[in-house]
Design brief:
Strands 1, 2, 3, 4, 5 and 6 form a 6-stranded mixed beta sheet that branches. It is built from 15 helices and 16 strands.
Length: about 450
């Protein structure tokens, strides 16, 4: 990428400056670039798709702001192009959203381009392209406030200490935070604090399920009174005594795409993972072996902790794809044509691998996800029925629905959806990858709009 490429894009310049586009059309200038170099730069006209933030640049550079006010420059953009870039001044706050090692590791195409001299740095790619393309510059960090809550006759403090809850949630090698870090391939980091116990003037013996909302409100009041800023946390987790003492509740509850979870058995980390998963927008992982659209067992998918799977393992391909957790290109690949495809084993995939770990088929009424798992690393306890080949999962055609495992193929076996017209045949597999043939495109009764 040349110096000029960094600051000029012909199509963008003409689109942003219709008077220049007319002048070029009428022959007054041979190109928008000629106008930009002769007049546009001095006039402060923006010329690139780059993310130059006027307000940020002026606020971060008071000398530039003063120079503009004194007439030395027409705009912050003019200063940046002529001087600021060479001086290493940041054009926006995107640098705060980028960890270069993470970005290069999870985007090997960018690493190759930087090594070949196509870009000076990871930041240059992220600045000009990656951010707009939706590439993640750093792991997502979310904060949890864990509140120990004591009822009059059911005290969580009689079952746990604050130190134990901190280990369970954040710090030990099998913590909830570590489980999500592994399942997200390092793209999601949970941090937080454990506080309490907060004593609630309510009895468990005569409770009803809706009481949990009042218990949460009262705990929030006490947390705020103790000086905690609740707005600093994306999640609030209320840890109470278990079902032997509070009989009106299940073992855990979590609001879908919300901020609250109620945990009534903190020792079972799968419960906490499921409820936090709900907060993140994940639904249950069930099974539908005959693919009739009716889930036979809501928690039946043993390959995902949103079902009945081990919290030491990964989540299924549908959840990985829809949560955008495998950030490495081409980690999740939608397919729109018949062909033969390789899929890398999810449990041994590493950032920098050149194979997808999930193929996504967007049918007329259902979306299918093809993934491959092996009993290695985080998946060492995965039941063997999921390891013989490609697993086929389904959702209802949108993210906010339960996932359903349909079947895992062996070599030579097929999966068919006669309504969509799609057929998946497993050709062969090894410890590292599986090869499948997908036929039936274009699918029947296609949607008018595809969602990738």
């Amino acid at each position: 990428m040349t110096f000029l490429d960094s600051f000029y894009d012909e199509a963008t310049y003409l689109a942003n400056n219709p008077d220049v586009a007319v002048a070029v059309r009428d022959g007054a200038f041979p190109s928008g670039l000629e106008h930009f170099l002769g007049f546009g730069l001095a006039e402060g006209r923006e010329s690139t798709r780059a993310f130059f933030h006027k307000g940020f640049y002026r606020n971060e550079n008071p000398d530039v702001k003063a120079a503009i006010q004194n007439g030395a420059f027409q705009s912050g953009w003019q200063h940046y192009v002529l001087h600021g870039a060479d001086e290493g001044r940041a054009p926006n706050n995107l640098a705060d959203r980028l960890e270069e090692e993470f970005y290069l590791t999870t985007n090997p195409d960018v690493a190759d381009a930087v090594a070949a001299g196509g870009f000076d740095s990871a930041f240059q790619h992220f600045f000009h392209h990656g951010f707009a393309e939706g590439r993640r510059g750093m792991p997502e960090v979310r904060h949890i406030l864990v509140m120990m809550v004591d009822l009059i006759d059911a005290k969580a403090s009689s079952l746990y200490t604050l130190e134990q809850l901190d280990e369970i949630t954040f710090t030990d090698s099998r913590s909830v935070a570590e489980i999500f870090r592994r399942a997200s391939f390092g793209n999601l980091i949970f941090r937080g604090d454990v506080v309490g116990p907060f004593a609630i003037n309510s009895r468990a013996e005569d409770c009803v399920l809706n009481d949990i909302h009042e218990w949460a409100r009262l705990a929030d009041v006490q947390a705020t009174a103790s000086g905690i800023d609740l707005s600093s946390y994306q999640h609030r987790m209320y840890v109470l005594a278990d079902q032997t003492l509070i009989r009106c509740v299940p073992r855990g509850l979590g609001s879908i795409s919300g901020e609250r979870t109620w945990i009534f058995d903190a020792n079972d980390r799968r419960i906490t993972c499921q409820e936090l998963g709900h907060n993140l927008g994940m639904h249950h992982a069930g099974v539908d072996p005959n693919n009739d659209g009716v889930i036979d067992a809501v928690y039946g998918d043993m390959s995902d902790f949103m079902g009945g799977g081990s919290v030491g393992g990964m989540v299924n391909g549908a959840h990985v794809a829809d949560m955008k957790w495998y950030n490495t290109w081409p980690g999740t690949r939608p397919i729109f044509s018949s062909g033969t495809y390789d899929i890398a084993a999810m449990s041994i995939a590493e950032p920098g691998d050149r194979l997808p770990i999930v193929l996504k088929i967007q049918g007329p009424l259902r979306w299918y996800y093809l993934s491959y798992r092996q009993r290695r690393n985080f998946d060492s306890h995965l039941p063997s029925k999921y390891t013989k080949g490609v697993s086929v999962h389904r959702t209802g055609g949108y993210r906010d629905s339960d996932t359903a495992w349909i079947k895992t193929l062996a070599d030579g076996e097929t999966f068919q959806d006669p309504v969509a017209g799609v057929t998946v045949t497993q050709l062969n597999h090894s410890a590292e990858l599986v090869t499948v043939r997908v036929t039936g495109f274009p699918l029947k009764h296609l949607r008018t709009e595809w969602r990738v």
